[in-house]
Design goal:
- The strands form two sheets. Strands 1, 2, 5 and 8 form a four-stranded mixed beta sheet that branches. A four-stranded antiparallel beta sheet has the order 4-3-6-7, with no helix packed on it.
- The protein is flat, with a radius of gyration of 21 Å.
- A hairpin with a 2-residue loop joins β6 (107-115) and β7.
- The protein has one helix spanning 2-15, and strands spanning 35-47, 60-65, 70-75, 89-92, 98-104, 107-115, 118-126, 131-137.
- It is mostly beta strands.
Length: 138
């Protein structure tokens, strides 16, 4: 019984480790010197037939990526309240709907994304030598 509990605890410990520690694509030599923010921009596409009440639903959803979305990075946690705040950086997403903002000082930032589907804003806090992820879904 004791051995079984030890085995279960070991399995839980191994499976609770972060994905990055087991991901061969993540190299310890690729740690950013400062901070980074990876921005992802997507939207849901519904496929399938229209369903009337009482029928079985054959619809499915797929994630599509938004290329060329405009990304604006502001200092601080809420750039929308201060229109005089100058952006730090402006860039666009690639064909996979992502963009990497590199070489940032650790701190709090506001990321604004503008697409044909609308505009959204998120705040994030970055850490030294780490990559933050901000996802937008329209």
């Amino acid at each position: 019984m004791k051995n079984f509990l030890i085995l279960v605890m070991a399995l839980i410990g191994i499976t609770s480790c972060s994905k990055d520690s087991f991901d061969p694509a993540v190299s310890l030599q690729n740690v950013p010197e400062k901070s980074e923010i990876m921005v992802g921009v997507t939207y849901l596409v519904w496929t399938g037939d229209q369903c009337t009440p009482g029928c079985s639903n054959s619809e499915s959803q797929e994630v599509s990526y938004i290329a060329n979305a405009r990304i604006t990075l502001y200092p601080g946690g809420d750039a929308t309240s201060d229109a005089s705040e100058q952006p730090i950086m402006e860039l666009t997403t690639n064909s996979e709907g992502t963009s990497l903002i590199e070489d940032l000082q650790p701190g709090e930032y506001t990321v604004m994304v503008e697409t044909e589907l609308g505009q959204k804003t998120r705040s994030t806090i970055t850490q030294l030598g780490k990559r933050s992820y901000v996802d937008f879904s329209f």
